């Protein structure tokens, strides 16, 4: 007999299933919106509807630089990101209603980037659960969630369903 999955595993599995729709060669991300135990929406990262995606037209990469202060010194971090792709969290917010988001939880395969974290912080959700870390923005995002009193946690020890995990290229 197969053991019944706990709710966190169940909903994170759904986020990973949503991520399999992504055509991004760098990162497949899925997100789901849950209120109580009710699934309200799913989303994944990709180009806008009706526009060639990265697998068809290639990534549209930009480089950004960020100055980070460390003990007695500053260092510059170079970030590369694709601007063709709408992130899974952004699509989730675009295709769900504000009233459904109030008091809800977002399960997302990857820790949100700074932009998505800002959007989620104003969306009405009360919790974000993620699996894979995104170290480039982790400290800032954690601090923002703490300031907004949004529960923010990683699923430690979680194993995605077979065939849903993709290699991550930062």
From TrEMBL:
Domain of life: Bacteria
EC category: hydrolase
Enzyme Commission designation: 3.5.4.33
Membrane-spanning parts: none
Gene Ontology cellular component terms for the protein in this record: cytoplasm
Required cofactor(s): Zn(2+)
The keyword Hydrolase belongs to this UniProt entry's keyword annotation: yes
Domain CMP/dCMP-type deaminase per the UniProt entry, residue ranges: 6-155
GO MF annotations, alphabetized: dCMP deaminase activity; tRNA-specific adenosine-34 deaminase activity; zinc ion binding
Cited InterPro entries: APOBEC/CMP_deaminase_Zn-bd, CMP_dCMP_dom, dCMP_deaminase, dCMP_deaminase-rel, Deoxycytidylate_deaminase_dom
Keywords: Hydrolase
Annotated family: Belongs to the cytidine and deoxycytidylate deaminase family.
Official protein name in the record: tRNA-specific adenosine deaminase
């Amino acid at each position: 007999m197969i053991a019944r999955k706990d709710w966190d595993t169940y909903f994170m599995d759904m986020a990973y299933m949503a991520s399999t729709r992504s055509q991004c060669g760098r990162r497949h991300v899925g997100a789901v919106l849950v209120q109580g135990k009710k699934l309200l929406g799913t989303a994944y990262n990709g180009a806008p509807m009706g526009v060639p995606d990265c697998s068809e037209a290639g990534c549209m990469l930009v480089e950004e630089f960020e100055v980070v202060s460390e003990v007695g010194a500053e260092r510059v971090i170079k970030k590369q990101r694709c601007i063709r792709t709408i992130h899974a969290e952004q699509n989730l917010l675009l295709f769900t209603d504000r009233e459904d988001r109030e008091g809800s939880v977002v399960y997302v395969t990857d820790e949100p980037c700074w932009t998505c974290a800002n959007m989620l912080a104003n969306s009405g959700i009360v919790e974000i659960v993620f699996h894979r870390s995104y170290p480039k923005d982790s400290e800032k995002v954690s601090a923002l969630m703490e300031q907004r009193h949004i529960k923010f946690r990683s699923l430690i020890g979680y194993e995605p369903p077979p065939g849903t995990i993709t290699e991550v290229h930062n």
